[in-house]
Amino acid sequence: MSEALELGINALRGQMDTRAMSYFSSCVRCGICAEACLFYTETGDARYTPIYKTEPLRKLWKREYTFWGKLASKMGLLKPMTESDLSDWEELVYDGCSMCSRCSMVCPVGVDIAYLIRKAKEGLSAAGFSPADLVAAGERADRIGSQMGVTSHTLNATIRVQEKETGLPVPLDVQGAEYLVLLSSGEIAGFPEFIGSLAKIFKATGISWTLSSEYFEATNTGVQLGNSKLAAKLVERIVTVAEKLDIKTVVSPECGHAYTTIRWDAPNFIGRPLPFNVVHVMELLDQLRQQGRLKTKGYTEERLSYHDPCNAGRRGGVLDQPRNLLKMVAPNFVELPESGDMNWCCGGGGGVSSNERANPLRLKVFDAKKRQLDAAKPEGLVTACSNCRHMLEDGLEHNHMYDVELLGVTELIAEHLVDGDEA
């Protein structure tokens, strides 16, 4: 057995917890999950069946944790795992799964397949079987604080531009502010108007808020890579700046997996409860709407549809809030078919977007989203996830769908905002 293979098997063995074993024991191999996975439906390749992507862990479970598996192994009836197996599954797990959890929604026995994929990633990553692009992104996140290499200097330059455009200050490092707003590097680099839009909305609603110049990144590359140590380190940085500024509530930005990481997974990573509350920006804006503090004027006549980010929506429950906000300004709103908690993924979640090797496959599976758009025929597509926006941009461009405008919920509300002086 090679050193790499031994390391890989030991790493996977370390991920075999009781939850994973119960899922493998429960799975009846019915294949229903296949039709819920865009990587299978759009390619027709049986290797992309969700449960098959968990095969490294399942093989280990069968061989070492079941009676018949142990017996068959001793009799030489089970093929031993090879280094080639790990290499093959590295491509399936990192390129062919966005961890969108749509498959988990349809499993008749309740297997959370995305959880098993996460476990497989943890093992493969520890053994060195991960895409080079994602490994490099993790190294940048560790060293610089941003998987894209965005620094505090970049943030400051972006803030100055937004302050000039809006005429409003963007607060930095305000001690005791009501809210600490996190950002994703994708927003800073691709959609900087998100910052200016927040400044407008928070001024109009009387919100006390701040950004941190010390650490601002919401994206957790450790989760995407399957590296719990890195994930915990990045969470600790958020906790440190929040405690330093005496923050009671942290706002997750328009980034799906960032929200589920800081809201649900973070306490498990660091081994203790978070010293602050966490709210998604859509939840906060909808709360302000309910309180009568967020008011809009005028409407857009465009026929708009909403793309539900998988993590924020399906796994995080942020489904009604963006729709409530859109109803304020978009009377011609129309739902995509199979929307809400059964929406089809943009194809780039779970770190797929950071893995250049996966680009051809990612663009192929965008066909699922294209069918939704062809059916609903919106003039504009709105979402609340910066990574989704980047992936949707790529998909629309690739399919020459130039007549579909791509919008963000926060910016759309800011365009129709009634400011404090008008209210």
Notes on the structure:
By secondary structure, this protein is mainly alpha-helical. The protein contains 22 helices and 7 strands. It has helices at 3-13, 18-26, 38-41, 55-65, 67-74, 83-95, 102-106, 113-126, 132-143, 152-166, 185-190, 193-205, 221-225, 228-244, 256-270, 281-290, 310-315, 320-329, 359-365, 367-376, 386-398, 409-415; strands at residues 179-181, 209-210, 249-252, 277-280, 304-307, 380-383, 405-408. The strands form 2 sheets. It has a 4-stranded parallel sheet. It has a 3-stranded parallel sheet with strand order 5-6-7. Helix 12 packs across helix 22 (409-415).
- Overall pLDDT confidence: 94
The overall strand count is: 7
Estimate the helix proportion, in percent: 40-55%
Task: Report how far the terminal alpha carbons are from each other.
Answer: 72 Å
The shape, in one word, is globular
Care to give the gist of this entry?
52% of the residues lie in helices and 6% in strands.
Considering the chains and any ligands shown, give keywords for the structure.
52% helix; 4-stranded parallel beta sheet; 3-stranded parallel beta sheet; 22 helices; 6% strand; mainly alpha
Please render the helix and strand layout as text.
Blueprint: H1 3-13, H2 18-26, H3 38-41, H4 55-65, H5 67-74, H6 83-95, H7 102-106, H8 113-126, H9 132-143, H10 152-166, E1 179-181, H11 185-190, H12 193-205, E2 209-210, H13 221-225, H14 228-244, E3 249-252, H15 256-270, E4 277-280, H16 281-290, E5 304-307, H17 310-315, H18 320-329, H19 359-365, H20 367-376, E6 380-383, H21 386-398, E7 405-408, H22 409-415
Parallel strand pairs: 1-2, 1-3, 3-4, 5-6, 6-7
